[in-house]
Structure formats: C-alpha cells, structure tokens
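User: Can you predict the 3D structure for this chain?
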Amino acid sequence: MASVPTTGVAVTAIGVAVIRAWEGERVDRLYEDPLAGAFVAAARAGFPAERWERLTALAGEFAAGRTVAVRLVDDRVRAGVADGLRQIVLIGAGLDTRAFRMGLPGEVTVFEIDLPETFAFKEPVLAGAVPSCRREVVAVDLRGDWETPLLERGFRPELPTLWIDEGSLGHLTEEWNQGVVRTLTALSAPGSRFATDRVAADQDATRYRDLRTLVGTPGRTEDAVFDVERWLRDLGWQTEFRAWNEAVEPFGRDVALPDPAVGTIHAVRR
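Assistant: Here is the predicted structure, written as structure tokens:
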C-alpha cells in the first residue's frame, strides 16, 4: 500500500500528477500519461476531503502553464535521445513517468532522484508497470550527498548525460543550488546537456501563498534566487535561452506571459 505524503514538498508532485491526468483527458492533449490517474487515485484515498479539494483547486491555478512545460521537457528528452544520449537524470523527479510513457529505447537509463518519502508513495503505485528503458531510483535528499547514491545505481560519468530540472532548484537555498550545479558539472562528460528554466514568479501572489500553506514549507526565499545560467557558463557550459512565449507558441494554448525574461535554458557541456 502506498504511503501518501499529505504535507511537504512531495505534495507538489501529486499536484503535477493531477495536471498530467487532466491533460490526458483532452482531445487536443500534448502528451498522454496513463499512470497519472493511478497516482491521483492512490493519493486521493490518503487525503482528507477538504485538503484534497484545496490541492486540486491549486492544481487548476497552475495547470495551463505547467502542462505545457511538461511537453517542453518531453521534447528535450526526445531530442537528446535522438542525438545519442543514453543517460537521463531527473533532478527532483517527483511522480515522473517518462521511463514508462515515452517509449524510450531499452539502452537508455533514466535515473530518478527524489526524497525517500516520494518513492515510498510512488513505487507501490507503479507495481506491475514496466518501463520501456532501464530505470533507476535514487532516493536521497539533494541537500546531502546524492553523487554517491547515483554512482552506486550505475551512473557512468564518462558518458554524456541529459540532466533535467523542472523546478527543484527553486526549493533549495543558493548555497545548495550551487552545490547541485557543481556536482552535476563534475559528473558531466563533454556533450552533456542540462535543461532548466528561468522563472519570475510573484511569490506574493495568492496562488503561491496558498501553495506554501498547503505544502507547509516557506517556499522560495530571497536566499533561493539563483542565476543558474550564469553559474553554468562559469563552470564551462554553453547556454542558450529561449523565451517562454516563443517556445509555447506552436502548441496553441493560451499561456503567453508578459515577461520576456521567462523561458527555458538549454546548456551543453563543453
């Protein structure tokens, strides 16, 4: 039986699963995640009714932009695999199911890094599901030593790797952010790629305050503001920024933003 996390950062992963399940119900869906509904059903059974209503209401506040962001990362994964990358590391994987739903080749290994409590919920729900590629779970807190457990699960630093961050760095202090970037840089062979975002969220907006209250964490603080693009360049990565509005325009969704500084960062290890 899955141990449902009803507080803490792991709750945000459940909210994203709700969004992915909603996307799968659309006729014009950008992707399909058959396992998202299983996560939603398992989580709902462990939540008090009022708290579940709050979670789904908040998911609705973030859904339009977040679901498009999932598709953008899917496209990065497809491009990396098409170009020969055979290691993918998901930093703060949450309830990600790309190893199952994207038809990745068998020679690809997806390493999922997240908190032990996330996997305590996730793995029982996935029982019986078969990934199309090799999948390795790395249950560890990014604020500690995550390099050793990653290597112990078979990660090969001599191979080019695709690193994916879908917001985990935003939950760490700047010192921890820098540590994560330094570590993944040391583990990255030339040709490795790193996909992340440049965001400009109004943390005083109602939906962010409500999210912090629901999760029970302070969320981003001034100390957590982190110029990951500059750090990557300083550490030997070549970076490319693509504005959000340009990136999402082909999808025909009403998710344009007024800030041209918001967008995606694609970095390549030189």
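The two ends are 45 Å apart (CA to CA). Residues 219-224 have pLDDT under 50 and may be disordered.
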